[in-house]
Amino acid sequence: MIARLSAGLLAAALLVTGCGGGEQKASTSSAKVGLITKTETNPFFVKMKEGAQKAAKAEGMELMTAAGKFDGDNASQLTAIENMVAAGVKGILITPNDTKAIVPAIKKARDAGVVVIALDTPTDPQDATDALFATDNLKAGELIGQYAKGAMAGKTAKIATLDLAPGITVGQLRHDGFLKGFGIAEGDPSVVCSQDTRGDQAKGQEAMENCLQKAPDINLVYTINEPAALGAYTALKAKGREKDVLIVSVDGGCTGVKAVKSGEIAATSQQYPLKMAEDGVKAVAAVAKGGAKPKGYTDTGVTLITDKAVQGVEAKDTAFGLANCWG
């Protein structure tokens, strides 16, 4: 009886492993992939999570997710990496809160055989991860700088830069790109005020208020993202300056694109977080199937969005922006 049962089980096993005939294909059905975002609440990262979920389902992978408790929370991200490595993930996708402080934890994960891909924000150094899937943030800044230069139409610029925070690569790249696109260097006297906002609307408003006290004749505002831009707009409106100050920004979230359509923001550079996460999950799935590890930088695209295009700067209108926005 036992012998007959064993033979039956063996036959069943052979039937399962041999079904389909010919060469077997590698499967990702038991593979896990992790996504660690800066926060859970920012619409950008909500859309990123949506992209990861969509791709993981399509690839038959299990998705683990975690996030910082606030923008800049390195400790929570470090713990998430450790937990995911312990859970046996094949790869981790991360938008680092602290681009330098997270590097040792990433190294431990990679040493354990886990593929680590940065999304949106490169680590410092960039090659601390296997690969980067992100907007070209320098180009994003450059596009709005070029736009602002054209839109100012030769007027003398009095510029306020509402930046992110020291030491965060994405903020520095956008800032540098704006200056490059506008055709000026760091320290140029046309930049009359610079304030950090951490990309927060309330802090953006406060920063703009401070800048207006320092330089009431500001006529151009660069902002790290659209929440900071809307904060700046609120401060300008309170002073009756909202119609004579040009605001440019980066992100391309739905709220931001609507603000471009209404005229609160003149233009924004739109990026695509869903694509970043989708491409990242697919890259990990390829490794799980026996493919090569991803490496280097993959540009996930950026588009200037405005309804008031200027000559020589390629752009799409807000109809396109709303069809491709997030949040």
Would you kindly provide a written description of the structure presented here, covering whatever features stand out?
- By secondary structure, this protein is of the alpha/beta class.
- It folds into two domains: 32-135 and 272-294, 3-Layer(aba) Sandwich (Rossmann fold); 137-270 and 304-323, Rossmann fold, CATH 3.40.50.2300.
- The protein is built from eleven helices and twelve strands.
- The strands form two sheets. The protein has a six-stranded parallel β-sheet with strand order 2-1-3-4-5-11, with helices on both faces. A six-stranded mixed β-sheet has the order 7-6-8-9-10-12, with helices on both faces.
- α2 (43-59) links the parallel β1 (32-37) and β2.
- The N and C termini lie far apart (63 Å).
- Keywords: Signal.
- Its main location: other.
- Belongs to the bacterial solute-binding protein 2 family.
- InterPro entries: SBP_2_dom.
How do the helices and strands line up, and which of them pair or pack?
Layout: H1 2-18, E1 32-37, H2 43-59, E2 62-67, H3 74-86, E3 91-94, H4 103-111, E4 115-119, E5 131-134, H5 137-152, E6 159-163, H6 169-182, E7 191-196, H7 201-214, E8 220-223, H8 226-238, E9 246-251, H9 254-262, E10 267-270, H10 273-288, E11 296-299, E12 303-305, H11 318-323
Parallel strand pairs: 1-2, 1-3, 3-4, 4-5, 5-11, 6-7, 6-8, 8-9, 9-10
Antiparallel strand pairs: 10-12
Protein name: Sugar ABC transporter substrate-binding protein
Keywords: Signal
Organism: Nonomuraea guangzhouensis
